[in-house]
Amino acid sequence: MFRPNETALDSLDVLFIEDDPRISELYRLKLEADGYLVRIVKSDGAVSAALAHRPEIIFLDLSSGILEQLNVLREVRQAIEQPGLPSIVLATTSNAIELERRGLGLSAADYLVRAPYSAAAGKSSLTRVGPTATNRTVPDRS
């Protein structure tokens, strides 16, 4: 995991739940370059990863089964006893409506649709949601 020298203490600790290694690598590179501490995990390892290093925010990709993935978010929050842990939920255009219907019930802080969503939009969402959700000031990294 990349830890920038001056910003490591000010960075948000992001748990990125993604089952596709190509997609997760794209977002990891962008978010780490912007100073975030990013841990990529697959759905089946999300709970144990969250217990080992309690994240401050979760990115959850819903490219596959929405219900199963939203259950992962619920299980992570329950396991670390943080039902309001902020999350940013990523979706494809084909499941965006279902995402909002089901995701809103889990209090997701933000929703991003992958196409035309980009890693830069993910950084923008973290900058917007992170400080409010964690009561911290995040330095401008633009």
Report on the structure:
This protein is α/β, with parallel strands linked by helices and 142 residues long. It has one domain: Rossmann fold (3-Layer(aba) Sandwich), CATH 3.40.50.2300. Strand 4, helix 4 and strand 5 form a beta-alpha-beta unit. The N terminus is likely disordered. The protein is globular, with a radius of gyration of 14 Å. Helix 1 crosses helix 5 and helix 2 packs parallel to helix 3. Strands 2-1-3-4-5 form a five-stranded parallel β-sheet, with helices on both faces. Helix content is 41%, strand content 17%.
Give a brief description.
The chain has 142 residues and is of the alpha/beta class. It has helices at residues 21-33, 46-52, 66-79, 96-103, 119-134; strands at 13-17, 37-41, 57-61, 87-91, 110-113.
Q: Would you tell me the overall average pLDDT?
A: 75
What share of the residues does DSSP label as strand, in percent? 15-25%
Total beta strand runs: 5
CATH fold topology: Rossmann fold
* Total domain modules: 1
Give me the number of helical elements.
Answer: 5
Shape descriptor: globular
**Topology pattern, helix = H, strand = E:** EHEHEHEHEH
- Straight-line N-to-C gap: 21 Å
Strand order, sheet with most strands: 2-1-3-4-5
Provide the CATH top-level class: Alpha Beta
The CATH homologous superfamily: Response regulator
- Unreliable spans are 1-9
Structural class, by secondary structure, is: alpha/beta
Biggest β-sheet strands, sense, barrel:
5 strands, parallel
List the helices and strands and how they pair.
Blueprint: E1 13-17, H1 21-33, E2 37-41, H2 46-52, E3 57-61, H3 66-79, E4 87-91, H4 96-103, E5 110-113, H5 119-134
Parallel strand pairs: 1-2, 1-3, 3-4, 4-5
Helix pairs in contact: 1-5, 2-3
